Amino acid sequence: MAEQEFDYIVVGAGTAGCLLANRLSADPANRVLLIEAGGRDNYHWVHIPVGYLYCINNPRTDWCFRTEPDAGLNGRSLIYPRGKTLGGCSSINGMIYMRGQARDYDGWAEATGDAAWRWENCLPDFIRHENHYRLDGNADADGEHRRFHGHGGEWRVERQRLRWQVLDAFAEAAVQAGIPRTRDFNRGCNEGVDYFEVNQRAGWRWNTAKAFLRPVCVKRSNFVLWHSTQVRRLLFEEGEGGRPRASGVEVERGGRVHGVKVRGEVILSAGAIGSPQLLQLSGIGPVDLLTEHGIPVVCELPGVGENLQDHLQIRSVYRLTGARTLNTLAASWLGKARIGLEYVLRRTGPMSMAPSQLGAFTRSSSEYEHPNLEYHVQPLSLEAFGQPLHDFPAITASVCNLNPTSRGTVRIRSRDPHQAPAIAPHYLSTPEDRQVAADSLRVTRRIAEQPAFARYEPVEVKPGVQYQSDDDLARLAGDIGTTIFHPVGTTRMGRDDDPRAVVDSHLRVRGVQGLRVVDAGVMPTITSGNTNSPTLMIAEKAAGWILAGA
């Protein structure tokens, strides 16, 4: 047992966990264990950017969760991908580097009463691990870019390695519709249209396992990595003042169940689905849920698994005339061969592309002071994820409500740690969200109607121009909306007097000693953009607090 005692145990080798393990093990005096339920990230499709198509809903790399049938989606259930491999969701996501808006973090500071979460105080944590391509030996980089971006860190940010004429035309149409151009989505206000920057290196996906574990971290004698290891529950002992203290974890490894002790802290980085599930399995959560499943209550925290937020994207498909899109390029085996050869020889072309290339941020109506919509625009179309491309040239313009007011839940179904929890996002469950959904489809139509896009003679295939009223469009949003895989908020941080807060502003679990949650679940409200990079920032900030506290 002496060999199985650590200063820190990090549960989950995903986006946050890999960075935490790197930072905590940098001091050779700290013995750090990183535990991942999934396997190694040695599946070739993890590393080829277009490989997300083969990683999502693949049990080798994805937990293959599904949502509960959702009334807001007219009874539909959605696949709900979560990474199950080293690197976690950074190994299967869209690779988009996006911080959100300054107001997101200022809102967190207000919700927690802690100025550490203000935008200006989060910016150094973004910069610390960043390695931005525009600063690669570039003495001419403008001062503003140097103020907002870093170089030499582990997290590589690059421009995409292809452009599409049809997307350039859509961008120009967006400008004609009143959306300004931008050179940088990540300076605190992301309003505008441009190609997304991505987490890639020379045409390969750059996940957090590459960035933070290899080669530096894995060579440290004080660092231990267990993959293919399921954490069954947290272990507790009596701490100071009679409060429970996390004393370790119970794991299932190599066909054997055993405990592992911790001297310092257990840190949950299992994500906005995995962390609340593990807390509930360990007796921390709503009393009625724990009692229902016969789990002894360690600490009553009614907010565990509540406050689930996600971005629901509504896909508009436009059939085009005379356009070069992936639908036509990949229509034959010869076309596919050319695409493959280009990637092998140059690491460019469609195999190097992120799921979405062009982005835009704007308002659904004039009543919004800040951009509340995000577009992911793709030079392709299909009926649903995993299905073949359409046999006609087309683009997909997906739009999401950045600040949904709908709230969902994550709740265990049993005491079995192998059984997936019940995930109920409750999409479009508020009048505000249904109105934004209807208005966002009108914004998409306004862009597609502009002169810059007219030469392609766009025809709206989905949802269809016959749908015009608010009620029609909101119902259609429920029919065609899909998740962009941004669940957050299920272990949210808050003030001491907030009964629904799960962790305090330094991410310590309330009522329990020696236990933190460090992942997207701690966000009080979802960021106004993609959530991977904000999760890294959270981990960077938490690592500093943990080391300072030690």
Automatic annotation (TrEMBL):
Positions of FAD binding: V231
Domain Glucose-methanol-choline oxidoreductase N-terminal: 271-285
PROSITE patterns: GMC_OXRED_2
Keyword set, alphabetical order: FAD, Flavoprotein
Molecular function terms from GO: flavin adenine dinucleotide binding; oxidoreductase activity, acting on CH-OH group of donors
Cofactor entry: FAD
Similarity-based family: Belongs to the GMC oxidoreductase family.
Protein name: Choline dehydrogenase
Species per Swiss-Prot/TrEMBL record: Halomonas heilongjiangensis
